[in-house]
């Protein structure tokens, strides 16, 4: 056995291990009844309302996406049979790539088996094209971005989160003639903060930098046809490469990049996580394609998500619950203590049948623990009001500092 694992296990009693097993919560989404789900704990089923799913628009239960996936299973079976370059490219992969390129107004797109591998696999190539590229990366960028940049071996500067002045200071200090790449998310996964995209594009133009934006928490949800935040701001064409996932707004699985054909071809050729792995099952690509197409023409889900997020914001303000104020749908309610955060999550579940996962280190720095709340397009006004009421009760019961009591200067 691995020595580190052995020493970890030796520090645990059988009860500890049984306890952590007992803590395990299985959530089974029920078709047609979302956002309710069945939770199995200690072998007992109960009904819960889910408030931390990344299936923000309920597309995992969309009839058209389900029908498309089922039809593709009937014709193509459940697997792809190989990597994209050796027998694993199917009609649906190509159709989906064309659809995504068109959605983002880019020349080409490339599918990966997840958003993680899309970031890791493309940045490990793009950050070395050309070889002496210097990268400027936001401090709160996702692990998949960090890993891709690390694997590229490129020189990297980290700028303070969403701090364009710091970005400019760092980029101005780099040699004028070296190739530069700026990498940001548009909606940050944990805080819901939105990037100041227009200012970042201005800096990129001023210093001749290439740009890469991760729209994982935005595609499907924002902008005309769900093309994301850059499209919402009318500046999608100012960014070189856009990256997205099919696993959140689109309710399926997979990731992609879209950008200039030459860059996409370079990634297709050199990215190890694209080349050396089995491609997505054709049926997944077919379901994702139906989902992307559906959300290009339907605004109902986007509108509902934004109304629910707005209502939740106003109820949390009224309840004096501290949360990061953003104009996105992700609500990070600030607890700031590991045990209290877990306890709040547990009580919401036990008392109110509400499931919100507590977010602790290493996903956030210790002392910055949050309940990451994800309202969904398929919650209704009643769900939002019940949720806010329950959260308020737990906040009072656990004596978690309120927004007005908290000293925001520290
Ligand atoms: N980028 C960001 C910002 C993310 O939050 C995530 C996952 N939550 C990913 C990329 C990876 O996407 P996926 O879950 O599709 O692998």
From TrEMBL:
InterPro entries: 4pyrrol_synth_NH2levulA_synth, Aminotrans_II_pyridoxalP_BS, Aminotransferase_I/II_large, AON_synthase_class-II, PyrdxlP-dep_Trfase, PyrdxlP-dep_Trfase_major, PyrdxlP-dep_Trfase_small. The keyword Disulfide bond does not apply. GO terms for molecular function: 5-aminolevulinate synthase activity; 8-amino-7-oxononanoate synthase activity; pyridoxal phosphate binding. It comes from the Bacteria. Its cofactor is pyridoxal 5'-phosphate. It catalyses: succinyl-CoA + glycine + H(+) = 5-aminolevulinate + CO2 + CoA; 6-carboxyhexanoyl-[ACP] + L-alanine + H(+) = (8S)-8-amino-7-oxononanoate + holo-[ACP] + CO2. Its EC number is 2.3.1.37, 2.3.1.47. SUPFAM superfamilies: PLP-dependent transferases. The keyword Disulfide bond does not apply. Residues 49-391 form the Aminotransferase class I/classII large domain. Keywords: Acyltransferase, Heme biosynthesis, Pyridoxal phosphate, Transferase. Pathway: Porphyrin-containing compound metabolism; protoporphyrin-IX biosynthesis; 5-aminolevulinate from glycine: step 1/1. Pfam families: Aminotran_1_2 (PF00155). GO terms for biological process: heme biosynthetic process. Homodimer. Belongs to the class-II pyridoxal-phosphate-dependent aminotransferase family. This is 5-aminolevulinic acid synthase.
């Amino acid at each position: 056995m691995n020595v580190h694992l052995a020493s970890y296990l030796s520090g645990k009693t059988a009860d500890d291990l049984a306890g952590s097993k007992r803590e395990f919560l299985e959530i089974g989404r029920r078709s047609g009844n979302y956002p309710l789900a069945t939770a199995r704990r200690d072998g007992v089923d109960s009904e819960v309302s889910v408030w931390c799913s990344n299936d923000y628009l309920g597309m995992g239960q969309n009839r058209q996406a389900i029908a498309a996936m089922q039809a593709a299973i009937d014709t193509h079976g459940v697997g792809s049979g190989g990597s994209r370059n050796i027998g694993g490219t199917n009609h649906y992969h190509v159709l989906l790539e064309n659809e995504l390129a068109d959605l983002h107004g880019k020349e080409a797109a490339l599918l990966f088996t997840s958003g993680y591998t899309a970031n890791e696999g493309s940045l490990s190539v793009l950050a070395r094209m050309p070889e002496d590229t210097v990268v400027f990366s936001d401090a709160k960028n996702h692990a998949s971005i960090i890993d891709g940049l690390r694997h590229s071996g490129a020189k990297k500067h980290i700028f303070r989160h969403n701090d364009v002045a710091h970005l400019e200071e760092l980029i101005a200090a780099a040699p004028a003639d070296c190739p530069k790449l700026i990498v940001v998310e548009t909606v940050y996964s944990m805080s819901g903060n939105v990037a100041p995209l227009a200012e970042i594009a201005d800096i990129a133009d001023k210093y001749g930098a290439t740009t890469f934006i991760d729209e994982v928490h935005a595609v499907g949800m924002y902008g005309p046809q769900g093309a994301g935040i850059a499209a919402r701001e009318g500046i999608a064409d100012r960014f070189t490469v856009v990256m997205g996932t099919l696993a959140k707004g689109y309710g399926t699985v997979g990731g992609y990049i879209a950008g200039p054909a030459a860059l996409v071809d370079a990634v297709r050729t050199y990215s190890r996580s694209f080349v050396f792995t089995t491609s997505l099952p054709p049926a997944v690509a077919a379901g994702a394609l139906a989902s992307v197409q559906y959300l290009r023409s339907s605004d109902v889900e986007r509108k509902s998500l934004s109304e629910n997020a707005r209502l939740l914001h106003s109820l949390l303000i009224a309840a004096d619950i501290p949360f990061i104020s953003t104009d996105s749908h992700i609500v990070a309610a600030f607890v700031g203590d590991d045990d209290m955060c877990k306890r709040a999550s547990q009580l919401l579940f036990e008392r109110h049948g509400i499931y919100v996962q507590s977010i602790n280190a290493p996903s956030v720095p210790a002392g910055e623990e949050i309940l990451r709340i994800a309202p969904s397009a398929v919650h209704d006004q009643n769900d939002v009001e019940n949720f806010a009421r329950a959260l308020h009760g737990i906040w009072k019961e656990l004596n978690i500092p309120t927004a007005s009591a908290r000293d925001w200067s520290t």
